[in-house]
Amino acid sequence: MDIIVELAKGFINLFETGGKTFMSWMTGIVPVVLMLLVCMNSIIRLIGEDRINSLASKSARNPLLRYMVLPFLGAFMLANPMALSLGRFLPEKYKPSYYASAAFFCHTSNGIFPHINAGELFIWLGIAQGIQKLGLDTTSLAIRYLLVGLVANFLCGWITDYLTRWVSKQQGVVLSSEVKIKA
Prior knowledge:
Distance between the termini: 57 Å
Low-confidence stretches: none
Pfam families: EII-GUT (PF03608)
InterPro entries: PTS_IID_sorb
GO cellular component, one term: membrane
Number of strands: 0
Keywords: Membrane, Transmembrane, Transmembrane helix
Protein name: PTS glucitol/sorbitol transporter subunit IIC
């Protein structure tokens, strides 16, 4: 009987822990993401969707803008995970590559811009603590991490472009080259 009682307690504890985690999200990241969405949509409305679409289509033509500048601006201004939302302004054929580049960028810029991915700041702080114990400055490490990240993230996006084309061709899927935004 004790085993059944312990199993029942464990089963309920699983859901209680899930509820606590959910509530921490509701008072932590969900309001932040919601406010970032409101801010981004407000900026889009102020600037105008036509201008944003035009800027996105111009940046979509150039891989450096698409996988280096746009993810940097998105991560710096919107942080993780909202940086990924800028991909909505790109044609379908570039969205997987933009996601790959932007997702990686949210990790590689944490040393110099900790606001971008606060949830993973502990990784950077652990590395920085080791560097400080060696008597070295963490600023130069953060800048190097950012610069190497920019190049690596660009390559990640560009390689994903090739893989997307290859898989699309293999599967017989045609991805649109035009920006289509659903309101």
